[in-house]
Amino acid sequence: MRRVIAQGTFDILHPGHVHYLSDAAAMGDELHVIIARGENVTHKPKPILDDRQRCDMVAALDVVDEAHLGHPDDIFVPIERIAPDVIVLGYDQHHDEEGIRAALEAREIDCEVTRATPREPEYDDELLSSGRIIDRIVERRC
Ligand SMILES: Cc1cc2nc3c(=O)[nH]c(=O)nc-3n(C[C@H](O)[C@H](O)[C@H](O)COP(=O)(O)O)c2cc1C
Ligand SMILES: Nc1ncnc2c1ncn2[C@@H]1O[C@H](COP(=O)(O)OP(=O)(O)OP(=O)(O)O)[C@@H](O)[C@H]1O
């Protein structure tokens, strides 16, 4: 049984998320997804949706076996509990692969780190970013 971890904010789901999670699921037998707590999303605007709602929506996707709300202070706590064989970073996630590998090694967690592929738009005006969907809502409804 090869266990895979994917992670992210997942505020307002779109086909880019489904692509990432399907890519990650194809790398093993069981996909676990860690949902970033709103308080830990500091590199972009805070999510619109609550932690629990984002977690429940990801859990409802077919390719996902289990969605876990992230730890408030230490990202390695859920990883130690899940004990994955591979962590799949998103194609544009700012996390540094080498840094994560070194931290895993320091904690004696034997796990690969790899990156998923991007989904390119398949038709005109396909919106593949939660931020762009929110911008569109503001533009059209405010
Ligand atoms: C391996 C890994 C584990 C993570 N675990 C947690 C966690 O336990 N709690 C949390 O709030 N964020 C966690 N994060 C951070 C977020 O999932 C996420 O990368 C970031 O906050 C949101 O960025 P993004 O949605 O733009 O990728 C983790 C990130 C990585 C790479
Ligand atoms: N178009 C896409 N193709 C492949 N993966 C994607 C795509 N969009 C998002 N992802 C992946 O989904 C995961 C969660 O992404 P995140 O919640 O930051 O979504 P986002 O739509 O990129 O958000 P924002 O627009 O606020 O930056 C990340 O690992 C990210 O790489």
Automatic annotation (TrEMBL):
A single GO BP: FMN metabolic process
Binding site for ATP: T9, F10, H14, P15, G16, H17, D92
Coiled coil stretches, renumbered: none
Catalytic activity reported: FMN + ATP + H(+) = FAD + diphosphate
Keywords in alphabetical order: ATP-binding, FAD, Flavoprotein, FMN, Nucleotide-binding, Nucleotidyltransferase, Transferase
Residue span(s) of domain Cytidyltransferase-like: 5-135
Keyword Lipoprotein belongs to the record: no
EC category name: transferase
Entry's EC annotation: 2.7.7.2
Superkingdom field: Archaea
Pathway involvement of the protein, from the record: Cofactor biosynthesis; FAD biosynthesis; FAD from FMN: step 1/1
Cofactor entry: a divalent metal cation
Gene Ontology molecular function: ATP binding; FMN adenylyltransferase activity
Quaternary organization: Homodimer.
PANTHER family attached to this UniProt entry: FAD SYNTHASE (PTHR43793)
Family classification: Belongs to the archaeal FAD synthase family.
Function: Catalyzes the transfer of the AMP portion of ATP to flavin mononucleotide (FMN) to produce flavin adenine dinucleotide (FAD) coenzyme.
Record protein name field: FAD synthase
Record organism: Haloferax mediterranei (strain ATCC 33500 / DSM 1411 / JCM 8866 / NBRC 14739 / NCIMB 2177 / R-4)
Lineage: Archaea, Methanobacteriati, Methanobacteriota, Stenosarchaea group, Halobacteria
